[in-house]
Amino acid sequence: MGKTIFGSKVVLYFLTLLLVSSLFVSSISAQDGINADPDVDTRVKDTMEVDGKTFRDLNGNGELDPYEDWRLPVEERVEDLVSQMNAEEKAGLMHISSLRDESSTGLTDDHLRYFVVRDDPNAYDLAERGNEFQELAESTRLGIPVVMTANPRDHINFDQVVGHAEASGQWPGELGLAATQDPELVREFAELSAEQWRSSGMHKMYGYMADVLTEPRWTRTDGTFGEDPELIADMMTSIVEGFQGEELSENSVSLTTKHFPGGGPRVDGTDPHHEWGQTNEYPTEGSLYNYHLPPMVAAIEAGTTSIMPYYAKPMNEASALQLPEHLWFSEDQQFEEVAFAYNKSILQDLMQDELGFDGYVNSDSGILDNMPWGVEHLTLEERYAKAIDAGTSIFSDYNDPSGLISALDQGVVSEDDLDPSVTFLLTEMFELGLFENPYVDPELAQEINDDPETQDLADEAHRKSIVLLSNENDDNGQVLPITDNEVEDVKLYVEAFRAGEEESAEASADLAQSIASADPSMEVVDYPEEATHAYIAVMPTINWRQHDNEGDPPSIELKKDSDTEIDAERILDLQEQVETTILGVNMTNPWLINEIEPGADAVLATFNNTPESIVDIIRGKFNPTGELPFTVPADTEAVENNASDVPGYAETFDYAYTDASDNDYELGFGLSYTSASDIKEKIDQFEEEGEFQNFGAARSLQAQLNPVEQFENQGDAEKVVQHLEGFNQKLEQHIEKGRISEKAFESIQASAADLMAKWQ
Asked: What residues does the Glycoside hydrolase family 3 C-terminal domain cover (predicted)?
């Protein structure tokens, strides 16, 4: 993937061009001739001029060493630098430390160079701090630069959790991007975000999650792209190619795709951050290859730099057949029951040899001490040895390399064993351009991060990600959109539901104010007694630190006495009290909505969306196009009976929630508003499929819809209904005279009835 096959004419053109160029240039290096000289910047060490070109004297010896010479191939530069590093420097490079403040402890004393940013400063401050770290790194013996890493930080995030999502940005959540069903939009997002990251001095991301959601209670669901392996694979391709580009460069953000071989199979939703959730079990034959590996394969083929294995260990007794025989750990064991970062048969035999991954392995945080599942009996030094032998190159969130140095002293690891890992890491640094110029301009960083054009695209993504699940009122037909003709009679009450009364009250006030600001034509009232309409925003959250407990797995019920602490009784009271209620459920998990959905007149699924985008949907400024990225379970029984390694759409029983209109809330479900233009598109489609006897029959129906469309835009309900009645008469004539198939007639008639109900 990612390669272009050129036609013979194009090849001939380039060969001719090269031949002509050779008449004028006697000799030219590949890097000199094709690329401009790199931007070289130094703040501590000297620079030197060689052959009229500028280089950094990073080791301060007054000579141009191969690793300092940007004209040389990266491989040659890396080999030279590895030869100059001592064991302590190599060990330090193989560790990543968390950065929550201004502290740079470990950079000089322990030779650390990789840092995970765990706080949320603005772009200017992020850039300034990064420059300070780079200056300190430049002052060390070899001047090896710093790599700043972070989890995804570009998405609106109401609940920041360390180790998962520590920052909040401007885009909808990952599930929201999946709901757009638009990989090209996601690629644009990735390209713009990469520019923001690099301008701020950020170089590498722990992302994105290629995990397939197969257990609705998993507390990390909101970091996934849902349950469809094919869609996730498309998203991963866009993400990797967008952030990294065709190859790593000074404009790239290097990605660590996670979590191999898929973190989705969570028994009861429990997570391997905990001892009681430490297993990956595959009870359904073939589920590993059918569901969990395809997105990983897509990321590998797109060129992801590194991959992060999950904490969990695979289990034999609880798993059906998953691996081909040649990948078995032993004759009688399919898996070695050790965590994936220690699992040589998974990382090397499966990931590298079978799937073709040629990058490096970045461990998850704390595998050496807090989550050493399956290797608890080993000493720290032996754990290092086993992980390195399995293929792990760098250890995350562990800022003390003394254990690895001790492993070297004890002889369980040799310095030669470290060189492949160090080579991977230095290659990444060189390709990112950090050895020439690791510094950034803080003012430019803030300007790029505040670019209004980026915000415009983010706003589009928000609108495209919202899913219309239900839109039907027994008395009035379609509830949404609230048209310009209707809005003057609307009095909207807004209430948000979160865990805790204070949090709910604060969220309610903020949301009401935001909605009022987004559309001043819609009156927002303070009390439900005053309202004709209510927008009820349900914003549940669960996380592995708080809601995943031994013997008490996470719950996705929307009840006051459940993990979500959502006051469902209050929601039901509002639905009784206010004539028309619009329910917006923030679907960071596939919440159980079976108690609160039936009483709503319209239902939206949101994914950490802005209030402005929600208003655009409610007011019809944007016709909803989002589709569910997962299946919503019917009830607690469905959740408890689900196969933990299989997506909701592939369950073998009636798993999905079904509403009163017989809509199944399955993967890919989503409604749109019916309009005259929608019916026109349907007529065109049926005409192309041969469902009309002749061209004239289809055109006559289109003509009947032109005034309907005109009066829709004017908000004239009486005229819309009048012309729709004429359309229906014409449609009846066509079916009576055999000019239209029964299939097309019934479909078009149903759409016309929906439109009529909205305007009557």
From this structure: 466-673
Asked if residue 734 lies in contact with residue 749, where contact means CB atoms within 8 angstroms, the answer is no
pLDDT tens readout for residues 421-464 = 999 999 999 999 999 999 999 999 999 999 999 999 999 999 99
Per-residue model confidence as pLDDT tens digits over 377-404: 999 999 999 999 999 999 998 889 999 9
User: Which candidate, 44, 513, 13, 431, places its Cα nearest to that of 253?
Assistant: 431
Q: With 80 as the cut, is the pLDDT of residue 11 above it? A: no
Complete DSSP assignment for 24-46: H-S---HHHHHSPPP----SSS-
Print burial letters for 720-737: b (CB count within 10 Å at least 16), e (below 16): bbebbeebbeebeebbee
User: From CA 267, how far away is CA 270, in angstroms rounded?
Assistant: 6
Taking alpha carbons only, the member of 90, 45, 52, 53 closest to residue 70 is 53
- Give pLDDT tens digits for 141-180: 999 999 999 999 999 987 755 445 555 679 999 999 999 9
- Cα dihedral sign for 457, 462, 463, 464? positive
Task: Write out the two tokens for 142.
Answer: 């070899």
Residue 118 phi, psi dihedral angles, 5° rounding: -110, 0
Rounded Cα–Cα distance for residues 385 and 392 (Å): 10
Nearest to 298 by CA among 285, 307, 310, 309: 307
What pairing do the DSSP bridges indicate for beta strands 467-471 and 602-606? Answer: antiparallel
* φ/ψ of residue 758, rounded to 5: -65, -35
Q: Which one of the listed residues 228, 234, 364, 459 is annotated catalytic?
A: 364
List, in sequence order, every beta strand (DSSP E) within 498-621. Answer: 523-525, 533-538, 580-586, 602-606
pLDDT in tens, 47-61: 999 999 999 999 999
Give the pLDDT band (50/70/90) at residue 747.
Answer: confident
Partners of 525 in the β-ladder: 493
Q: What are the residues facing 258 on neighbouring strands?
A: 209, 308
HSE-up (13 A, CA, CB side) for residue 100: 6
Residue 17 exposed, middle or buried by CB count within 10 Å (0-12, 13-18, 19+): exposed
Cα separation of 315 and 333, whole Å? Answer: 10
If phi > 0 it is left, if psi is from -120 to 50 it is alpha, else beta; for residue 637 that is alpha
Closest CA to 69 of 61, 80, 60: 80
Cβ burial 607-623 (10 Å sphere, 16+ → b, else e): bbbbbbbbbbbbbbebb
* Residue 364 annotated among the catalytic residues of the structure: yes
* Residue 218 backbone phi and psi in degrees, to 5: -60, 130
Distance from C-alpha of 355 to C-alpha of 260, rounded to nearest angstrom: 12
